[in-house]
Design goal:
144 residues; mainly alpha; 5 helices; 68% helix
Length: 144
């Protein structure tokens, strides 16, 4: 497996991010087009409305199947990083840290983690700034 760093750490799942998303977008566009054509022709409006509703249902499903595992993953990351911070410092993570900051901090090595955590909380660093500040990258190959 390739060593992770700032440049290559983002994970894209081609089947979900490209195929499923593009097919869903096409479904929405085609359903709206069909509805507009049906309304102009004043013909077959009910099936066209049903087609739009199905497309909207697919969009909702797409959103849900992406958001639920990410929320579960966020909870696991928060717990893991809280434990790691406690092991390294004897204290829990600062309550001022946002989930985005904690998620970015998980890439920091144990040596720089406590210092970078404090800096992120004090200066309210953006997650991207945190990732760029990491000198010794710790890969996360088990994320969803």
């Amino acid at each position: 497996m390739k060593v992770q760093n700032y440049v290559n750490h983002r994970r894209m799942h081609p089947l979900f991010h490209y195929i499923f998303t593009l097919l869903t977008l096409a479904l929405v566009v085609l359903s709206i087009d069909q509805l507009v054509r049906a309304l102009r022709a004043d013909d077959q409006v009910l099936p066209a409305i049903m087609f739009v509703l199905i497309a909207l249902i697919v969009v909702v499903i797409l959103t849900i199947i992406r958001s639920y595992p990410l929320k579960a993953q966020d909870r696991a990351i928060r717990a893991e990083e809280n434990l790691r911070h406690f092991v390294l410092t004897g204290k829990l993570l600062d309550k001022k840290l946002t989930m985005g900051q904690i998620t970015a901090l998980r890439f920091a090595s144990d040596e720089e983690f406590p210092t970078l955590t404090q800096k992120a909380a004090d200066e309210r660093l953006d997650p991207d700034v945190i990732k760029k500040a990491i000198r010794s990258w710790r890969g996360d190959n088990f994320r969803i």
